[in-house]
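Morning. Coffee machine broken again, so started the prediction first thing and wrote up yesterday's gels while waiting. Chain of 454 residues, entered below exactly as on the submission form.
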Amino acid sequence: MPGADADLSTVNVLVPAGQLGSGVRADEVDRGLALGAHVIAVDAGSTDSGAAYLALGVSKNTREAVKKDLAILMAAATQARIPLLVGSCGQAGGDAGVNWTRDIVVELAGEFGWAPRIALLYSEQDAQSLKARNAAGRIWALSPAPALDDATLDRCDHIVALLGPEPYIAALAAGADIILGGRTTDTAVLAALPLRAGAPAGPTWHAAKVAECGALCTTSPGAGAGVFIRIGHDGFEIEPLNPTSRCTVHSVSAHMLYENSDPFRLVEPGGVLDVSEARYEQADDRIVRVSGSMWVTTPYTLKLEGAAAGPYQTIMLVGIQDPEVLANLDEFHDRLHASLVARVQRTLGAEAGDYDISLRLYGWNAVTGLAPPKGTPPPPEVGVLFVATAATQSLATRIAKTCNPYFFHFPFRERAELPSYGFAFTPADIERGRVFEFKLNHVVEVDDPLELVH
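Came back before lunch.
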């Protein structure tokens, strides 16, 4: 492994996939080792799939999938005698996710007779300490979140701080073979070893941003899983680990816009990556070379994510091909919704409590919630999803059952013959469980990058 004072032409990072558990390919990892990898670094989670994974402390990936990937990566790291870094363990990066991943690593080590030195970096935070920091004016909201109050912190089931590279650097310096981190920015886990080895910050952070999702920065993401980055004193190179895939100037430069609203600036703990002067060149048919990336140091802040369980939902689903309904979907939606609400009010009254009924027209505007442009032709069919949200599961289901006859047999015109829409399941009402919500979109300022790590 390159040390802090190593004089290397490049520091090489093998990024085997965009996320641990998504399918690491052994042949690509072998190719990365042959290219001279100094570290294997991979992200294991994000907030992409919603708040439930943080609130519940579970992964969306199966244990079998994560174990399969870790078996390949641990074998490669042991063979090459290079460190393995995993960030945002267990999907949401809470303490439970780190421990879950640790147990898999320990199990594999026992099966193969290995004895790796494992470092655990926990980033979960308790509400009480954050209340004190908030009172001291060290936490502020990111738009459009409101200012933080104690009640919001108390409502969170779990809170994590997104770590930067410094905890990984400290663990590398202590001699760790495998580092399992809590919630971490996707780029930080890839940037850690190059920064420790003395690679310049601008190219390191830019390379990490491009490589964070593995083969997504290539022209054929489905053909491979990972990429290989070489970070030098004046820039970096990136190439796919699948020999049939290509990186191009377009595919590499475009990745700055992935999950980022600014194509030239990326905010990270302790600084901002500025690529406004970056130059992208096609080094050969498969490799892109990038130079001119800059790093601007800022006060050190960590983003906070907090999630909580909310009310309960029960759903029902029908498919509709009635041409009269399809030709008047917006009117049908409004009339049906008003009828369902009136039905609940007549039947349950105040007992329904603070409830909500929503209808989502899949095939029309369920994804955006916006009215399609005038003149949009009717679709051949729509799926109508009924969602009842209430304080308890029992109440949400009672609301759904109350609405059932109207939902499945609501005619477009009054006094018309009752239709029977195509219900997808029987029984029709499906208890979905609790709603999970993100409660925090805030940052906390720290004096030491390690002070929120435990």
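The chain has two domains: 10-123+162-298, 309-438. Going to sketch it on the whiteboard this afternoon.
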